[in-house]
Specification:
- The chain has 56 residues and is mainly alpha-helical.
- The chain is 61% helix and 0% strand.
- The protein contains three helices and no strands.
């Protein structure tokens, strides 16, 4: 099976702490927001948090 072709995304593989898996699944289902979009939002927030440190 061939890998899907992504135009606006890049495959990124990671793992999640066991205690975060169920709440993350529930959040995605309740909000009807895909997990990939939630991860995008979390990474954007993290990058903003560290933006000043990264500029040095």
């Amino acid at each position: 099976m061939a890998d899907p072709m992504y135009v606006n995304r890049k495959r990124f593989v990671t793992s999640l702490a066991n205690e975060l898996v169920e709440p993350f699944d529930k959040l995605s289902k309740k909000t009807r927001v895909p997990k990939s979009r939630l991860i995008d939002e979390a990474v954007e927030d993290l990058l903003k948090k560290y933006e000043k440190r990264m500029a040095e």
